[in-house]
C-alpha cells in the first residue's frame, strides 16, 4: 500500500507544478489574466508566442514522463506491502495522479490546465507508441481544422483506441487510457460549447 500512496503523492505533486503560470510570471505577466485565463501551453502560446508555448508544453509533458518513471523506479518493488501492484500499475497510479494534479492543483484553488501535454507525457512514459499515434492524430486534425481544442478532443478519443490496438486486451493500461480520455474531453466542455456556438478561436495561417 505504501508504494501506491507514494506513487499517487509523487504524481500529484509533480503534476501540480504550474509551469505555465511560472513561465508567464518570469515574462512579467499573470497568464490567468490574459486570453482564456488557462495556465496551459495553448494560452501561453497565444499570449507570449510560440517559443514560450512550446517550452511550457515540453515542461508539462516532462512532469508526466517523470511521474511514471520515478514511480516505477523507486516504488516498483512493493514486496513488503499487503497490496501489491506491478511496476507498470504503479506508473499508471502516478500518471493519473499527475494529470489530476495538473488539472486541479491545490496551490491554485484546484484551477489548473486541461492536461493535454501532461497526458502526452504520461503516455510517453507508459506506452510511447500510443503517444505517437495520438500525437499524429492531433497534428493531422489541427492542420485540417486549425482548432487546438478539436485536435485535442480527437487525440483523446484516439488514445484508448491506440492502446487497445497495441495491448489487444482490456487491461489496467486500457482502462487508464479510457479514464484520461474521458477526463480530457470533459475538461474541454467549454470549448465544445463554443464550437457548437461558432465562437471558438482558431489559429489562422499567417500570410507570407
Q: Can you walk through the features of this model?
A:
By secondary structure, this protein is mainly α. Helices cover 70% and strands 0% of the residues. It is built from 10 helices and no strands. Helix 8 packs antiparallel against helix 9 (172-187). The longest helix is centred in the first third of the chain and has 25 residues, at 50-74. The protein is globular, with a radius of gyration of 17 Å. 49% of the residues are buried.
Which helices and strands appear, and what pairs or packs with what?
Elements: H1 2-15, H2 19-26, H3 41-48, H4 50-74, H5 87-103, H6 116-126, H7 128-145, H8 148-167, H9 172-187, H10 189-197
Helical content class: over 70%
Unreliable stretches? none
SSE-based structural type:
mainly alpha
Helical region count?
Answer: 10
Shape category = globular
Question: How much beta, percentage-wise?
Answer: under 5%
SSE run: HHHHHHHHHH
Average pLDDT across residues? 90
Number of domains: 1
Record field, number of beta strands: 0
Described by strand count, sense and barrel closure, the largest sheet is:
none
Distance between the termini: 58 Å
Rg calculated over all Cα atoms: 17 Å
Amino acid at each position: 500500500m505504501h508504494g501506491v500512496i507514494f506513487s499517487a503523492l509523487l504524481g500529484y505533486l509533480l503534476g501540480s507544478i504550474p509551469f505555465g503560470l511560472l513561465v508567464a510570471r518570469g515574462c512579467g505577466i499573470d497568464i490567468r489574466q490574459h486570453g482564456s485565463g488557462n495556465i496551459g501551453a495553448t494560452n501561453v502560446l497565444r499570449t507570449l508566442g510560440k517559443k514560450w508555448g512550446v517550452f511550457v508544453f515540453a515542461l508539462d509533458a516532462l512532469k508526466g514522463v517523470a511521474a511514471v518513471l520515478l514511480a516505477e523506479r523507486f516504488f516498483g518493488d512493493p514486496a513488503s506491502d499487503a497490496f501489491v501492484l506491478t511496476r507498470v500499475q504503479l506508473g499508471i497510479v502516478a500518471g493519473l495522479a499527475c494529470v489530476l494534479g495538473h488539472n486541479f492543483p491545490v496551490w491554485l484553488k484546484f484551477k489548473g490546465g486541461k492536461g493535454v501535454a501532461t497526458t502526452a507525457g504520461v503516455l510517453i512514459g507508459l506506452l510511447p507508441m500510443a503517444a505517437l499515434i495520438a500525437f499524429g492524430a492531433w497534428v493531422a486534425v489541427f492542420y485540417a481544422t486549425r482548432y487546438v481544442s478539436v485536435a485535442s478532443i480527437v487525440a483523446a478519443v484516439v488514445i484508448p483506441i491506440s492502446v487497445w490496438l497495441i495491448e489487444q486486451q482490456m487491461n489496467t493500461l486500457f482502462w487508464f487510457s479510457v479514464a484520461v480520455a474521458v477526463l480530457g474531453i470533459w475538461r474541454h466542455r467549454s470549448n465544445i460549447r463554443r464550437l457548437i456556438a461558432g465562437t471558438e478561436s482558431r489559429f489562422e495561417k499567417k500570410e507570407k
